[in-house]
Write a structure and sequence with these properties.
Layout (H helix, E strand, L loop, with lengths): L7 E3 L6 E6 L4 H6 L3 H9 L10 E5 L6 E6 L12 H6 L3 E5 L7 H7 L18 E5 L5 H19 L7 H15 L2 E6 H7 L1 H7 L9 E7 L6 E6 L1 E5 L8 H4 L7 H15 L5 E11 L11 E2 L7 E2 L7 H14 L4 E6 L3 H7 L5 E4 L2 H13 L5 E2 L17 E2 L8 H10 L8 E5 L3 E2 L9 E2 L4 H12 L2
Helix pairs in contact: 4-5, 5-10, 6-10, 7-8, 8-11, 10-15, 11-14, 13-15
């Protein structure tokens, strides 16, 4: 387990390897100021300061055996990831920037040293910690909290489904609650069937040990502004009787990525001690294939009272979220956020890096987009286009769980959820991939938190002390 708090320390003037940051525009001027020996080494390494994340080792000064030069996109405006490659590649030791302070780049320094290793028989990296010194002592704890929350989301998504089912999601929620003095309630069995029929239906095909449940966590003063965070917790999605292809099923351990984001965001809210009353809801299920599984053509009830015709058992995430959103609405929150790995259509439209964000409130949408830019955690707003509501019509029930067209799949899924979100309450839905198909500095291949920091920055802006 990575102890992030050990990797950032207040700079009190101790010995450290200097890191010189340069960008394409300023490299030539910087190089002219270096010694002949350094310039010769840079030329031999063909280091020209043009490629981001490129770095080179230089002879040291001020008692240090060596120093580092690294290229970033913009020296004047550091990104969260501009030091991540160095944190991954440099030897054990203590470092500081030669000029300025790391600011947002502290996050990448931390996450560059985190890997999910629970299933490795031996570590591939026997180096010790790479410690970064900073004069921005006040920024250390917030950076550590962000890294811990991101790592929580990543690790949950990376855990194989055999070891992370509904019961384990419940255990993770209880562990978080214990850390912050929160209260957890779990609804399962007959009470789930009666109160949350869509969650029960999706999970009814699973074995008893992986029975469905609704997990709720509450934290904060009753008198504080109420916010609800909802996360899709489909711990494995076979597609049900509308079974997925082999390729489509391969990554479905990550279909609880929405729950991972919701837990991570709840952790940030509580760790920051935001003055809110938090209601976290995770509908946790496995969408399994069995004789007991729900079927295409079935009509099921919902907590809200709407009858849903099942057009496709692989459109199950919106069902469990619908019941959870209806429950959230009963508490009369002033803000609702939900996260889900909901549709392939969002990935076709936006690719793996951009979560689709839908919002029913212009101010909330603007705040989320502004926060996303400020913290370099991109999101892309998609429309809740009323004209597509008719695609969800059913001849037999109040609505169908899947559109009668293959077009606008992420939009119709969001429109389905809108039927269950509290009317008149600002609500945003994140259709996130929760996965990185190829590695980038500080972001290894595998589970990832996409949209998490943007959502937290918005909450911190609205409710921060």
């Amino acid at each position: 387990m990575t102890v992030f708090a050990d990797l950032l320390q207040a700079d009190r003037g101790g010995a450290a390897h200097a890191i010189h940051l340069v960008d394409k525009a300023g490299f030539a001027d910087w190089a002219k100021k270096q010694s002949a020996e350094r310039r010769t080494l840079l030329e031999a390494a063909r280091y020209q300061g043009k490629t981001a994340f490129q770095f080179a080792i230089l002879p040291g000064s001020q008692g240090q055996a060596w120093e580092v030069v690294s290229t970033v996109a913009n020296v004047a405006e550091l990104s969260p990831w501009c030091l991540a490659k160095l944190a991954e590649a440099l030897p054990e030791g203590t470092y500081r920037l030669a000029e300025g302070d790391p600011g947002p780049a502290m996050l990448g320094w931390l996450l560059g040293q985190h890997r999910f290793k629970d299933y490795k028989s031996k570590s591939e990296d026997d180096r010790g910690p790479r410690v970064l010194l900073t004069k921005e002592a006040a920024g250390i704890e917030p950076a550590v909290r962000l890294a811990e929350a991101t790592a929580l989301a990543r690790d949950l998504v990376d855990t194989p489904a055999a070891d992370l089912g509904p019961a384990e999601l419940e255990a993770a929620t209880r562990s978080l609650a214990k850390q912050f003095g929160a209260k957890v309630d779990v609804t399962s069995g007959d009470a789930l069937e009666q109160g949350y029929p869509m969650i029960a239906a999706v999970g009814q095909g699973a074995v008893r040990e992986r029975a469905p449940r609704l997990i709720e966590l509450r934290w904060g003063k009753e008198s504080a502004p109420r916010i609800a965070i909802v996360g899709k917790g489909v711990c494995f999605d076979s597609g049900g009787l509308d079974i997925k292809s082999t390729a489509g099923m391969r990554l479905m351990k990550k279909d609880m990525g929405g729950a991972a984001h919701a837990l991570a965001l709840a952790k940030l809210v509580m760790a920051e001690n935001l003055p809110v009353h938090l209601h976290l809801l995770i509908p946790a299920v496995e969408n399994a294939v069995s004789a007991a599984a729900f079927r295409p053509g079935d009509v099921i009830s919902s907590r809200k009272g709407l009858k849903i015709e099942i057009d496709n058992t692989d459109a199950e995430g919106r069902l469990v979220l619908g019941d959870a959103l209806a429950r959230a609405a009963e508490e009369k929150p002033e803000l609702v956020l939900d996260f889900a790995t909901l549709t392939g259509a969002a990935r076709i439209a936006l690719g793996p890096d951009l979560p689709a964000m839908f919002a029913n409130d212009e101010e909330l949408a603007a705040d989320l987009e502004s926060a996303a830019r400020q913290v370099s955690d991109p999101i892309w707003r998609m429309p809740l286009w009323d004209g597509y509501d008719e695609m969800l019509k059913s001849d037999l029930a109040d609505l169908s769980n899947s559109a009668d067209s293959s077009m606008a799949g992420s939009v119709t899924a969001a429109l389905f959820l809108r039927r269950f979100a509290p009317e008149g309450t600002p609500w945003a839905h994140f259709d996130t991939y929760a996965w990185r198909p190829s590695a980038k500095p500080g972001r290894p291949k595998g589970g990832d938190a996409l949209g998490l920091r943007a959502a937290f920055a918005m909450l911190a802006h609205r409710y921060g002390r």
